[in-house]
Design a protein that fits this description.
Number of strands: 11
Largest sheet: 7 strands, mixed, barrel
Order of helices and strands: HHEEEEEHEHEHEHEEE
Structural class: alpha+beta
Helix content: 10-25%
Bound molecules: zinc ion
Strand order of the largest sheet: 5-9-8-7-6-10-11
Number of helices: 6
Distance between the termini: 37 Å
Number of domains: 2
CATH architecture of the largest domain: 3-Layer(bba) Sandwich
CATH topology of the largest domain: Glucose Oxidase, domain 1
CATH superfamily of the largest domain: Putative cyclase
Radius of gyration: 18 Å
């Protein structure tokens, strides 16, 4: 596993890691980003670290990696308790919400996603909606934190709640803006039971309907978890 060890010793070299939207041998497209030491993270959070603490090359019986990062690292889900006092933890995420049809909506010129950007998209109750924005023009997970990423504002969040969506996915580290009403956006969505997946890499994907598999780890009581998210174009 030389890549893993490099990631521990040299974050820059780790950025050479294989690219993001990976078309597998079968029909599934991986829209998760690789987790690695030194990767972009929310300002103020500790830098993600994946450190080999036992190494066969050093005489250990096995290789063992210590993972140190917040629940909101890379591609991840937010649980209600992330912003709602007494809210559910990520282990309560219903598998039926994470597995099924999802619709990718392309908003290539939008700077902040508001009600105006969403209200003519025919969004239906129960839909899983993934928003592709100009965030996905860059391999953002290889870059430094970008404070002016495209996010959903409070009016957009309230529209999604009123429309009755089951899940909303976005292509940067937060569904809400870094400054301004980002907290409000989270509270509106999580308070209404809308599940949030953040940190998707959607470069190269077309607008349309996909099958989706989105599964966070069942970390008991956690306000979030890294997630593996796959899409497959429906025919
Ligand atoms: Zn989060």
């Amino acid at each position: 596993m030389p890549l893993l060890r490099d990631a521990c010793l040299n974050p820059c070299k780790a950025k050479l890691y294989k690219d993001t939207v990976k078309q597998s041998q079968n029909r599934w497209i991986d829209i998760s980003v690789p987790l690695q030491s030194g990767m972009v993270h929310w300002p103020g959070d500790p830098e993600p670290s994946f450190q080999r603490i036992a190494d066969i090359d050093q005489g250990s019986d096995a290789n063992v990696t210590l993972c140190r990062h917040t629940a909101h690292t890379g591609t991840h889900m937010d649980a209600p308790c992330h912003f709602i006092p007494g809210g559910d933890g990520i282990e309560t995420f219903p598998l039926d919400v994470g597995i099924g049809r999802a619709r990718l909506i392309n908003l290539p010129t939008t700077a902040i996603v508001s009600k105006d950007d969403l209200q003519h998209k025919g969004i239906q109750p129960g839909e899983r909606i993934i928003l592709k924005t100009r965030n996905s023009d860059a391999r953002w997970h290889h870059l430094d934190f970008k404070a002016d990423f495209v996010a959903i504002n409070a009016s957009g969040a309230q529209f999604l709640v009123d429309a009755g969506v089951a899940l909303i996915g976005v292509d940067y580290l937060s569904v809400g803006a870094y400054e301004g009403d980002g907290v409000q956006t989270h509270r509106i969505l999580l308070g209404a039971g809308v599940w949030i997946v953040e940190g998707l890499q959607l470069g190269g994907l077309e607008e349309g309907v996909y099958d989706m598999i989105c599964l966070p780890l069942p970390i008991a009581g956690s306000d979030g978890s890294p997630a593996r998210v796959l899409l497959s174009k429906t025919t």
